[in-house]
Amino acid sequence: MQTSDLGVRALILEEGDVLRAYRCPAGKWTIGPGLTAASGVVVPKPGMVITKAESARLTKLALARNYEPAVTAALPGAKQHEFDAGISFHWNTGAIRKASWVPLWVKKAARPLIEAKFRQWNKGAGKVLPGLMKRRERELAILFDAKYPVSSEPKSKSVSVARWALPMTIVEKANVVASLHVLGYRGGTADQLPAYEVRRFQSDHGLTADGIIGRATLSTLQRRLDAAAKAKPAAAAATAAPAAAAGGSATDITDQIAGASWALPLLAGAAVLWCAWLTWQYRDVIAVKLNARAPKVAAWLRSL
């Protein structure tokens, strides 16, 4: 089977359609509706820009190669809307072959049983995510009721207010606004976030500065937050070794390790390697910090 036009539109609504390459939270170059080099249909690179037509072509190619055969095999005899729901689920999770709701659907089990298993796929990094909970409900509506989601954004909206390109809860939007505030991009609420502040964030990070909060902006924001969170233990590790070597106070564990003279070089070396790894892993974040003073260096870091 093939994904219907409604199914593709629903998928794009969930994933977004980013026409300029960006790094996902894991650091992989991504373009279109979440296409990475692993898709086998495109190799996103720094500065790559594609058209909507090309994104649509690549999406259909990725569906045909990587997703539609698996969903066809997993959901034999599926109606079009059931197949489209399976595609959205598999694109997001990659788990159509092992999800426990699938054999229940094949056996035509009661709807509540299938829904209960389907809703279990609501976690990211071990945490229940409100966005995934909402997505599973939208996919269930497609699966059982042939009810496809539509964009909730008003057709006309002030260009001075940022627009949300993906379905998000009010709590998720508030968290995004709070995170932008922490990074120095201030003003407004979830429904009245100034577009110029979003454009400033996008411009600082090499994104398309359109004031639209979509997948690329959210992924880049997450990388900034992850880098800040990981920098704290890295800084602590970097200072622990000199402190231990000098007989100063660190944590109890560090003091115990430092009691053995052979461990001091290992402790210092591990701290240096950890900091070096973080520097490489988040070189795009460092580029933002250097952009004003050393734009050429920043551009070079982004190109790596």
What this model shows, in words?
Mean pLDDT is 84; it is low at 243-247. The chain is mostly helical and 304 residues long. Helix 1 runs parallel beside helix 3, helix 3 (80-93) runs antiparallel to helix 6 (130-145) and helix 12 packs antiparallel against helix 13. 58% of the residues lie in helices and 6% in strands. The strands form three sheets. A two-stranded antiparallel sheet has the order 1-2. A two-stranded antiparallel sheet has the order 3-4. It contains 13 helices and six strands.
Features:
single chain, Lysozyme, two-stranded antiparallel sheet, 304 residues
Largest sheet: 2 strands, antiparallel
Q: In what order do the strands lie side by side in the largest sheet?
A: 1-2
**C-alpha Rg, in Å?**
23 Å
CATH A-level architecture of the largest domain:
Orthogonal Bundle
Q: What pattern of helices and strands is seen along the backbone?
A: HEEHHHHEEHEHHEHHHHH
Poorly predicted runs are: 243-247
Number of strands: 6
Between the first and last Cα atoms, what is the distance in angstroms? Answer: 40 Å
Residue share in helix: 55-70%
